[in-house]
Design a protein that fits this description.
Blueprint: H1 3-17, H2 21-24, H3 30-38, E1 45-46, H4 58-69, H5 82-96, E2 106-109, H6 111-123, E3 129-134, H7 138-146, E4 150-155, H8 166-172, E5 178-183, H9 196-208, E6 212-216, E7 241-246, E8 259-262, H10 265-278, H11 284-295, H12 299-322, E9 334-335, H13 346-357, E10 359-360, E11 362-363, E12 375-378, H14 383-400
The structure holds pyridoxal-5'-phosphate.
Pyridoxal-5'-phosphate is lined by residues 50, 111-113, 137, 184, 188, 216, 218, 246, 248, 254, 259.
């Protein structure tokens, strides 16, 4: 080892000692780690990244271009433009019949990602517990840890449609410690949608035990053959819910970075304080685009949903035909097949599938312990690519099938 290398090692150790405990506690995202392997490879079909393959509909882009041409390039109010908040309030009333005051009960954020972080930081004291389903979106666990809370993961299973039940939640409620329940349905990564009755049971529990429900409904518009239930619209729940929603998925607007939170005014005031010192406001052009998304023709969403539905049917049938049994996803744009017939861990499956057949999927273990034995396949990808990916996966599974 050269002297220079020893010095570098010392510097690196020194730097590590100066990383805060809250950052050290986070595990690197299982998705990111996997995509580092992928970068630079050619001919890969990606069923990996969870974002629409459509560009943002043209009328939405045009509205943003026009606003830039008019020179609308300043900060907006911390809470978001009054027009967008008003339109959102109208939208939530007309879709779900839930009544929010646009001036005090709605905050525009930098995607649902920021709204989630703000919700946790606004309501958690150190050591407060937050119950969430496992598997679930990768940021849930981390956002709780970053707010010095304690994540309490409740296992969910394919045989019970990856739904979380009120009775399982109740078993984990600890007096004075459990502060909130974090739900994300339609679910990333499983595509599960909760039945209305099961949500009603959770609502009753939340009211009885005085718990706040943080409901991430970013995939609300991406449901197939069923209606979305908005948690805040359940009887008595508006006062107990922090509703998170966004534009990234339904309007193909991931890069614009706009989302929102709707909640009782005391919670929105606390979230706004944190937001004003950290973000100031969501991007001005993004908010103009989001306003147009809500005000404009909704046919673009309908057409994208129809397209995802066609792909959903192809991928689920294709995976089952290969022998990767697949739970029927009812929302979002993910299929979550079991890979147990290969005897591989989900990480090994994903790494070898990428290396040998150039198909990228995400190991289920990235979403929690109960994701082990599954991989997430995002079908927001061209149909021809899905069909080619299925051919490659068939070759791969036939080679390694154990049973
Ligand atoms: C369940 C869920 N919530 C939140 C987000 C983040 O969305 P946004 O782009 O609005 O920050 C994602 C993105 O994949 C997601 O899947």
């Amino acid at each position: 080892m050269t002297i220079r290398t020893r010095t570098q090692t010392r510097v690196s150790q020194h730097r590590k000692q100066h990383i805060a405990e809250r950052a050290n506690k986070l595990s690197p995202s299982g998705i990111r780690k996997f995509f580092d392997l992928l970068s630079g490879m050619e001919g890969v079909i990606s069923l990996g990244v969870g974002e629409p393959d459509f560009p943002t509909p043209w009328h939405i882009r045009e509205a943003a271009i026009e606003s830039i041409e008019k020179g609308q390039t300043m900060y907006t109010s911390n809470s978001g433009t009054p027009e967008l908040r008003k339109e959102l309030a109208r939208h939530l009333m007309s879709y779900y019949g839930v009544d929010y005051d646009p001036t005090s009960e709605i905050l525009i954020t930098v995607g649902v990602s920021e709204a989630l972080d703000l919700a946790m930081r606004a309501i958690l004291d150190p050591g407060d517990e937050v119950i969430h389903p496992d598997p679930s979106f990768v940021a849930y666990n981390s956002s709780i840890i970053l707010a010095e809370g304690i994540p309490v993961a409740i296992p969910t299973y394919e045989k019970t449609n990856f739904e979380i039940s009120a009775s399982d939640i109740e078993k984990c409620v600890t007096r004075n410690k459990t502060r909130a329940i974090l739900l994300g349905y339609p679910s990333n990564p499983t595509g599960a949608v909760m039945s209305r009755q099961k949500l009603v049971n959770i609502a009753e529990l939340a009211q009885r035990r005085n718990l706040t429900v943080i409901s991430d409904e970013i995939y609300a518009k991406l449901v197939y053959g069923m209606e979305h239930t908005c948690f805040a619209a359940l009887p008595g729940m508006k006062d107990h819910t922090i509703l998170l929603g966004g534009f990234s998925k339904a309007y193909a607007m991931t890069g614009w970075r706009v989302g929102y939170a709707a909640a009782p005014k005391e919670i929105i005031a606390a979230m706004t304080k944190i937001h004003q010192y950290t973000m100031m406001c969501a991007s001005t052009m993004g908010q103009v685009a989001a306003l147009e998304a809500l005000r404009g023709d909704q046919d673009c969403v309908k057409e994208m949903v129809e397209d995802y539905n066609r792909r959903r049917l192809v991928i689920v049938k294709g995976l089952c035909d290969i022998g990767l049994s697949c739970f029927e996803p009812k929302g979002a744009f993910y299929a979550f097949p079991s890979i147990r017939c290969t005897g591989m861990s989900s990480e090994e499956f994903a790494e070898r599938l990428l290396a040998e057949e150039k198909v990228a999927v995400v190991p289920g273990s990235a979403f929690g312990d109960c994701g082990e034995g599954y991989v997430r396949c995002c079908y927001a990808t061209a149909l021809e690519d899905i069909e080619e990916a299925l051919k490659r996966m068939k070759r791969f599974v036939n080679k390694y099938r154990k049973a």
